[in-house]
Amino acid sequence: MKPLLVFSSFRTGSTWLWTRFRDLEDVCAYKEVFHERLSITDREDILRFSSASWPSRHASQVHYFEEYLSTLNSQGGISRFDPRMSFEWMMPEPDAEHRVRNEEGAYLELLCTAAIEKGRKPILTFNRATARVQGIRSKLGGSTVLLTRCLAAQWASYLSLRQAGVDYFLRTAFRSIQQVLLNAVWRNNMKIFLPPNCDTSEQGLKELTMEEAWIAFVGMNLIHFAIAAPFIDLRIDIGRLSTDCDYARQTQRKLNEMLGKEVDLSGARMSLSFKREIHDLVLRTSLSLAQKLEIFIESNKLDVSTQLFLLELVTDINILCIAPRSDEEGPDRTVNLAERGLIAWKKRVQSRSKDSMDLEAKLDSLESSLFPTAFSFWTKPTQESPAND
For the chain, how are helix, strand and coil distributed in percent, rounded to 5? Predict the structure, then answer.
């Protein structure tokens, strides 16, 4: 029985999606299998740690780690879990197959075996392993899902929680950036998104300006996505899932086919409302970010579909943040901004990509599929949008 492997990041709707899997019969859905807390947890902690024990802003109270009870060590911690899996090993081994470490493979196989022995299909969810997709899929088999959220919305959630006294997610962002910098293969790519002569120590990264930190956060995610993209079977955009009924139906059908079970994806809710400072931050950095993305793509031999994926992610930022930043700017301005960006991108790739015709066709498809549904939030009263989560 092959597992379903679900990759995402923090504040992307990953807990909500995990609860959809958890509600299924004959399924064992593990939450955040590389969470550092798993190295020290015990039975009492598992039964206590829930969405109600911190300002999670999750819609319902859930205990995150109940599925791990059968794999607890008597001295505490989950069997075969190594704390290095959380951050130190966030980037894959520097070989062609991006193989997982032996310790990672043994731990993940233990979780799958524990589920299968109970007659349940294992579903493993990861919030810090997007760069390890290839190696994990090669080791375990099964299908892969990538859950994404508009990066600006994700960043806004990090900042909002910091204001509420929870700085965990910002700290994970800086630690994740540092792990890319420590990787010999991807270090120079991360530096594209950092200021010249930047102090790359953990303390140095914390001293970045807000604009610099935001660009670094986007860059780190784009690098992870570029590594993962060729090995993803299904990408789920939580923003479109919550606003586009046709997209939600198609995504649910594809997921049902992968699982052989009926997953209920109704009820997805993701805020499309941003504070003014987020709009202004994106506006101030949009040109710099576009230039850095172009350098990144030119520096790496990315396939056409990966280029398109990265472009769509950056386009999402502009669609959801730049255009609706004031009452005077409406959907027409949003479309014009996005269309101009796509036209400029076509011109850039036309002269130097042997696959330019294929890419241009896909960009045309992106225009027709993304833009008609991207502005449904304009028709909704502001009060219907939930708070950033």
Answer: 60, 5, 35
